[in-house]
Design goal:
single chain, about 210 residues, alpha/beta, seven-stranded mixed β-sheet, 7 strands
């Protein structure tokens, strides 16, 4: 994984009420909570790529009485962010320091019912986004949900990105692009057959 940004400091705007990052967090959390509300399964598995401090998933689980039915893995490259997430993670949620751009990082954590790609697609090149979306069925259980984010700064890739999800066998359940900000949040459900986990690199961070 290659990156020049300090991803620990990047999290600070989460604590600023009304910041675009805190608004995006609340929107992602709402979709995570909605997924858990819709799925009555006694056990659900989650995997989060480039999870940072895990505020999206962990924030939702901390407020739910049914959090115990959720297990999963948060994959984070920065050890400082991983430590923050690990301290907040409930039983059943593991945090690993690894490169989420490598498929081997998901070994033992998939197939998952909920796959989080939050804060990923805005930091990798377009070709890697397409490669990653095409590979997502390898991370998914049947009818899994993928929640993702992407900036809409020009040139806006989100229309093309949504088409790539369709090509990969997903149906769109939500796409939110709030006024006054550049971020967007997408929710897609796998309708094609899942695929076995392969090997290789999906993406490399360029920021």
């Amino acid at each position: 994984m290659t990156a020049t940004r300090d991803w620990y400091d990047w999290h600070r705007p989460y604590d600023e009420e009304g910041s675009p990052l805190s608004r995006r967090l609340r929107l992602v959390q709402r979709h995570i909570a909605g997924f858990l509300d819709r799925r009555s399964d006694p056990a659900l598995r989650v995997v989060s790529a480039c999870a940072g401090q895990g505020r999206d998933l962990l924030g939702v689980l901390s407020e739910r009485p049914d959090a115990g039915r959720v297990t999963g893995r948060l994959i984070e490259f920065d050890p400082r962010n991983a430590a923050v997430a690990r301290a907040a993670a409930p039983d059943g949620i593991t945090v690993v320091e690894a490169d989420a751009g490598e498929l081997r990082a998901y070994d033992g954590a998939v197939p998952a019912d909920l796959v989080l790609f939050v804060g990923v697609f805005g930091n990798i090149v377009d070709a890697d986004i397409r490669t990653t979306v095409a590979a997502l069925p390898q991370l998914c259980a049947p009818a899994a949900t993928v929640i993702w984010t992407r900036t809409r700064e020009a040139p806006d890739l989100t229309p093309t990105l949504r088409g790539w999800f369709a090509e990969a066998g997903f149906v769109e359940e939500a796409f939110e692009a709030p006024d006054g900000v550049h971020f967007s949040v997408g929710v897609h459900r796998l309708t094609a057959d899942p695929q076995p986990l392969g090997e290789g690199r999906l993406f490399t961070f360029v920021r």
